[in-house]
Amino acid sequence: MGKNVCILTTVHPPFDTRIFHKEAKTLVRAGHDVTLIAQHDKNEVVDGVQIIALPKPKNRFTRIFGLAWRAFRLALRQRADIYHFHDPELLLAGGLLKMLTRAKVIYDVHEDVPEQILTKHWLPALLRHPLAVVFNAFEKFLSRALDAVVVATEGIAEKFRGLNPVVIHNYPDLRMLPDLSPVPKEGKEKTLVYVGGISKLRGALEMVRALEYLDHVDGLRLDLIGRFEPPELERELQALPGYRRVRFLGWLQPPEVYGHLKEADIGLVCLHPEPRYVVAWPVKLFEYMAAGLPVVASNFPLWKEIVGGNNCGLCVDPLDPKAIAQAIEYLLTHPEEARRMGEHGRQAVREKYNWEKESEKLLALYAELLS
Q1: Do 4-171+354-370 and 190-351 show the same overall fold?
Q2: DSSP letter string, 313-365
Q3: How far, in Å, are 43, 48, 103, 201, 353 from residue 280 at the CA level?
Q4: What residue stretches are annotated with the Glycosyl transferase family domain (predicted)?
Q5: How many CA atoms lie within 13 A of 164 on its CB side?
Q6: Taking the domains of the chain in order of start, what are their residue ranges?
Q7: Domain 190-351 class?
C-alpha cells in the first residue's frame, strides 16, 4: 500500500529533472501519494504529483532563512510518512521534521557543498575556507540524526562514510528521451554542443578559444545551452575571436535540448579539474551518449574510464584549448569512427547508465524505511 511522501526543495525549480521527472514520478508509479513543495506560481497536480507552491524569494538571504522556514511549516502540515529534502539549506528543517514527527527523513545530496563553497564568487575569498569547514561539520552532524542520506555520486558518498549513503546516479531517464536517432548530416554545418551551466570552471573560455584553432574548418558552430554563471561572463566570451562561431540558445526545457542534440555532431564536457568535478558523473555526458554523439571530455580518471571504457569519445586536457580543438578536428575528419563512438555511447546508456536501473535503488530504500 502506498504511503504519503513529501519532497522539499527551496533551490531547484518544480520540474527539476532529478527531483520531479525521475524521483517523484518514480514514487507515483510505485503507488505513493507524492507532494512536492517547491518554488512555483500556483498549486497544481502534474503527472500525479501534488505541487505546493512556494513564492519566489527576493534574494539569497530570504531564500535560505525565510523560504526554508516556510517550506518546513508547509511540510509539517502534510503529515507524511517520508520527508525527502534536496537542499543543504533545509538541513535544519529536516532535523526538526525528524524531531517533531514519526516520519522517516531522507537528505538527497546532489553536490559536494563544502567544495562548492570554495568557488562561490559571491562569497569573500577569506571566508570561503572557514565557511566550508564549518558547513562540512554541520552537514555531517545533522545527517547523523536522519534516516537516510542519498547521494548522486561515489565521490560524495566518500564524504558521508559511516552513514551508509545510498548512491543513486543522475542517469538519463529513457522514458523522457524522444527518438534520438541522429538526423542526416550530409551537407549541413558541423555543430558542437554544450549543455549546462556556462562558467569558467566548466570550461567556457577553453571551448570558445578552441574554435580559434579550427578557423580553417568551414561551417563549424558551437551551440551553448544554459545560463551564464555569472551573467557578466557573456561579455567576456563575446570579446574572444572564436565567439563569432557561437550560438547562445539560453536555458531550454529538456524536449528542446534533445531536439538540438539530435542535430549536433559532437558533445563537449570539458570541465576544469576541480575536486568536485573530478569525481562527478555529469548528466550532460550521459545525455550526449544517449543521443548518439561522440564526446570530447575532460581527462579525469573516472571520465576516462567511462569514455574510454565504452569507446564513445576522446578525453583531453580541459585547460588546453588546442588539445580540445585537435580532438574535435579528429572526430570531424574521421566521421565513420565518430559514428561508431556515438553508437557505443548510446548502447552503454541503454544497458547500464540509465534511470530505470537507478530507480530500483530508490524504491528499495523506501521499502526498507517503510517496512
Answers
A1: yes
A2: EEEE-TT-HHHHHHHHHHHHH-HHHHHHHHHHHHHHHHHTSSHHHHHHHHHHH
A3: 34, 31, 31, 14, 14
A4: 184-347
A5: 6
A6: 4-171+354-370, 190-351
A7: alpha beta
**Which residues, listed in sequence order, are joined to residue 188 by a DSSP beta bridge?**
none
Contact criterion met (CB below 8 Å) for 165 and 150:
yes
The gap between the terminal CA atoms of the chain, to the nearest Å, is 11
Amino acid (1-letter code) at residue 199: S
pTM of the model: 0.85
Give the residue from 326, 274, 279, 273 showing the smallest Cα distance to 306.
Answer: 279
Range list of H helices, the chain = 25-29, 60-62, 68-78, 91-100, 113-117, 125-143, 154-159, 204-212, 233-238, 254-263, 275-278, 283-290, 301-309, 321-333, 335-351, 355-370
- The topology under which CATH files domain 4-171+354-370 is Rossmann fold (3.40.50)
Is the previous residue joined to 14 through a cis bond, with omega within 30 degrees of 0?
no
Number of other residues whose CB lies within 10 A of the CB of residue 133: 12
The rounded distance, in Å, linking the Cα atoms of 193 and 224 is 6
The pLDDT profile of the chain, 371 residues, written as one tens digit per residue, is 689 999 999 999 999 989 999 999 999 999 999 999 999 999 999 999 999 999 998 887 788 778 999 999 999 999 999 999 999 999 999 999 999 999 999 999 998 888 888 877 778 888 888 888 988 898 999 999 999 999 999 989 999 988 999 999 999 998 877 665 655 655 568 999 999 999 999 999 999 999 999 999 999 999 999 999 999 999 999 999 999 999 999 999 888 998 899 899 999 999 999 988 998 889 999 999 999 999 999 999 999 999 999 999 999 999 999 999 999 999 999 999 999 999 999 999 999 999 999 999 999 999 999 99
Q: Please tell me whether residue 29 adopts helix, strand or coil conformation.
A: helix
Decide: 235 and 263 in contact? Cβ < 8 Å: no
Pairing verdict, β 33-39 and 4-8: parallel
Rounded to a whole number of angstroms, the CA Rg of the chain reads: 21
